[in-house]
Amino acid sequence: MKLRIENMDVKNKTVIVRCDYNVPIYNGKILDDTKIVASLETIQYLIKNNCKIIILSHMGKVKTEEDKLYNTLEPVAKRLKELVGREVYFSREILDPELPKRIEIMLPGDLLMLENTRFLDIPNQLESRCDLQVSSFFASLADVFVMDAFASSHRNHASVVGIAKYIPSCIGFSVERELISIDKFLQNPEHPFSVIMGGGKIEDKLELISTLLPKCDYLLLAGGIANSFLKVLNFNIGASLATEKEKTLETLKQILLTYREKLMLPLDALVGSTYDEHYARYKKIDEIGDNEVIKDVGVRTLEKYKTAIKKSKTIFLNGTMGVYEDIRFSNGTKELLNILKNQNAITVVGGGDSVSAVKNLGFKDDFTYLSVGGGATLEYLTKGHLVGIDAIMDGEEIEILDV
Ligand code: ADP
Ligand code: MG
């Protein structure tokens, strides 16, 4: 395990924390402050230890000058101020040479948030290319670096990876929670272990599928992922989303041959059509017409998948069953979540869309663990390590206790 914040000497120190404050904002209003709330344990711990706290985070995608207008962290600083009940100072300038003086006069427990680190990407991608001068500037502001942005930990960025090269570093509470939960539930799962994999593009998930297949007992497929497998099996999937790449199709063929008895594919679907946006029909999987588009799984598929789920002690879900953003095609995802909710097993959901579907469809409190890491969670499961966590100092091994 990496060095935990509780094992780092932070008392009375100046601490720079990389948070994940990439929250959804519309017209300057924060739509969901879950990520800010998730950071409070670390922030409160540092306040309690009389630290001066400097906060870094990115927000959104910043490719043009105009993007800066919509991606300022200022509303986040305001919300954090409400949540901690203390002043949160804000610096619009990130690489401001005056910052050390400003920090000097801060009092213990004071907070200072710097503007969106991705603003440094214009014009020279200093953040995204992990410019070490930027990292060393950040490090020069503090005595200790705390990495608490799990969702960014797969990024080789200046505010993620570089700082730990210069000052003592440790992980914050929310990173620790993610690492422990993923290790406990998914690296050594209780069997039978079912993986449910839906979503859009097969290429995004192929490595993850290949990693999980030897470990799991069942792999239940849905969405665009299942379509590509159906295509290999010569089903007519009409105009549905599926890969065109020969190399991918060949890999899927090998997977089908090697893991035949673990794989489950849809028996039916709800389909739309290419020429009529109001079209929505139920079809068996061998009845799909040339102009039809698979948009969700049908009831028979869910009945079949339920048999594997019922036998499982651990279930991991990534990807949605269908195009859940369209209410007509969200039922498969909703019904699946309902089945999982009523299953007495360890249930873990990972992935950006998957976790937001769980929240939006009303199942927020019905799972053992909702991993907040998005792409970082999937990369950790696939590769077993993350560049932003690798950079942090090692701590003692800790024993993971059973639930
Ligand atoms: P996560 O972000 O949790 O890793 P994905 O992005 O892989 O999950 O899956 C969600 C996306 O998959 C949604 O945007 C959804 O519209 C899309 N999707 C699901 N089923 C289909 C389908 N049959 N055809 C096209 N897109 C699909
Ligand atoms: Mg997604």
Write a compact overview of the structure shown.
The protein is of the alpha/beta class and 403 residues long. It is built from 16 helices and 17 strands.
Low-pLDDT sequence parts: none
The biggest beta sheet is recorded as: 6 strands, parallel
Quickly name the level 1 CATH class of the largest domain. Alpha Beta
Bound molecules: adenosine-5'-diphosphate, magnesium ion
**How many H/I helices?**
16
**Domain tally:** 2
Adjacency order of strands in the biggest sheet: 5-6-4-1-7-8
Say how many strands there are: 17
What does this entry look like structurally?
With 403 residues, this protein is an alpha/beta fold. It folds into two domains: 5-178 and 386-390, Phosphoglycerate kinase, N-terminal domain (Rossmann fold); 188-372, Rossmann fold (3-Layer(aba) Sandwich). Helix content is 36%, strand content 17%. The protein contains 16 helices and 17 strands. It has helices at residues 34-38, 40-48, 65-70, 74-84, 99-104, 132-140, 158-162, 173-187, 202-212, 223-232, 246-258, 299-311, 331-341, 352-360, 375-383, 387-390, and strands spanning 14-18, 25-26, 29-30, 52-56, 88-91, 111-114, 144-147, 169-171, 193-197, 218-221, 263-264, 268-273, 281-284, 292-297, 314-318, 346-349, 369-370. The strands form four sheets. The chain has a six-stranded parallel β-sheet with strand order 5-6-4-1-7-8. Helix 10 (223-232) packs across helix 11 (246-258). Bound molecules: adenosine-5'-diphosphate and magnesium ion (MG). Adenosine-5'-diphosphate binds next to helix 10, strand 14 and helix 14. Magnesium ion (MG) is lined by residues 351-353.
